[in-house]
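TA notes, week 10

Several of you asked for a full example with nothing omitted. So below is the full record: structure tokens for the whole chain, then the designed sequence directly under it. When grading your own attempts, check the secondary structure regions first.
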């Protein structure tokens, strides 16, 4: 079963490769306690906007104070995206902090584009404080 997800451009986890080795990117985000947050979205769109094989998302280091779920589905890209208004298969990485947890958590994950390029993301998540914006499906977008 496919689910359609809307997303913001900031939520797209697009990957790039450097010399055959995965490039690494560090990010920090603040989310509300007890609420799920979309960490990344990886599309099946190639650079020429044709649909390729979904490269996907792989969790390298799981969070200690929550859980992550990789969801598969389809979405229509926003008009501001490099391939506007295009239906594409996607994978989303969603983080859910443990009940009553407030503090810092971390996750590392790798994205792979349809062309095979990879990038590793290390995300420090601050649970509590000023919340992230809310996107589709009631998820906070990082």
């Amino acid at each position: 079963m496919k689910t359609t997800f809307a997303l913001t451009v900031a939520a797209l986890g697009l990957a790039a490769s450097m010399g055959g080795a995965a490039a690494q990117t560090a990010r920090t985000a603040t989310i509300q306690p007890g609420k799920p947050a979309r960490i990344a979205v990886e599309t099946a769109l190639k650079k020429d906007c044709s649909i390729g094989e979904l490269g996907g998302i792989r969790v390298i280091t799981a969070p200690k104070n929550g859980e992550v779920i990789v969801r598969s589905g389809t979405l229509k890209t926003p008009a501001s995206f490099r391939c506007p208004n295009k239906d594409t298969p996607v994978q989303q990485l969603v983080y859910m902090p443990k009940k009553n947890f407030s503090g810092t958590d971390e996750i590392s994950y790798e994205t792979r584009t349809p062309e095979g390029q990879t990038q590793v993301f290390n995300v420090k998540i601050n649970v509590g404080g000023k919340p992230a914006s809310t996107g589709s499906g009631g998820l906070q977008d990082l």
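DSSP finds no helices and ten strands in the chain. Use that as a sanity check on your answer.
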